[in-house]
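Q: Could you fold this chain for me?
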Amino acid sequence: MLQTLAVANYRSLHELAVPLAGLNLVTGDNGSGKSNLYRALRLLAQTARGGVATALAGEGGLESALWAGPERISRAMREGEMPVQGTARSTPVSLRLGFAAEDFGYAIDLGLPVPGNSMFDRDPQIKNESIWAGPFLRSSNLLVERRGSVVRRRAGRSWEVVEEHLSGFDSLFSQLADPQRMPEVLALREYIRRWRFHDHFRSDAAAPARQPCMAIRTPVLADDGHDLAAAWQTIIEIGDGQGLQRSLEDAFPGAQVRIEGWEGRLSLKFAQPGLLRPLAASELSDGTLRYLLLIAALHTPQPPPLLVLNEPETSLHPDLLPALARLIINAAARSQLWVVSHASRLIAALQEDPACNALRLHKEFSQTRLWGVGNLEGPAWYWPQR
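A: Sure. Below is the predicted structure, expressed as structure tokens.
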């Protein structure tokens, strides 16, 4: 389970270390940085999929994603004697992301290459990657260190250089995940690759979930939900079918979902008291379809170590939000949950669970901070040096 997420110099996240628990609820006013924190977590996940540079390019490039404020908030700025604004950069470009789990920690430091050597001198370059054992980095628990193109790993009391010509735009997860030479890298890469993100299931008239799908066992619902019927039937056959039905009835008392098959394809039918006939997925309201997608996602027979829901309340009627909270709380017994929400009713229902770790964000001098947490009160975190 993740215990700490740390971000530095990414958009409004100038320097932030966030403590995590089994169920994490991220809230805050509009513009407080919720989306930035969510995007930073997704960017961190891309390191294990070989796409961190591509993901930054999709955000307009590294320089567009960098913290745009001053490198240091001075006393005069804090006391209002001078405005809080960016100045000429005096330190190297550095966007840093990291986390600490129960067994391993990982951090990556992204910068820019030396200008003039290539036409790709705006392409993000990995300056440092580190893997360590334990809740925070110390010199004694560092296991793998990458500085530029050179990678070394701990070998007893000394260090062994395992690579001297690593590509600057690819993570060591892409280049050195070998079960013999670098088992730590492989284990951590596979752990991150199992993280799962569900952010905006489509429920419009042309949504893929409204169409029949191939009859293939589907333990993990696709990001676009096109295999909803197959995922639902898979849960019935090899997962917690009774729990699936309880979650359905919690939201829609007396409702039944039936999966019909023909010629190798499956379709979903939804029956509810008072309806003269079951409704096909193409006939469901946006809110009902979206809720069925959430039920299927959270009842997966292959729960991931981390499951992230970004604004799951979208398109849902407020009366469904208490049932959604119970669905999320039950799923937190199988996976670590991260929920970003604006909905006050969902927030209140989740906070009734004593295990809920409520993370309220706010802006202070243009940077995102945790509400009620001072500079010296957050989790211990130390960045690797270049």
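A (continued): The domain at 196-359 is CATH 3.40.50.300 (Rossmann fold).
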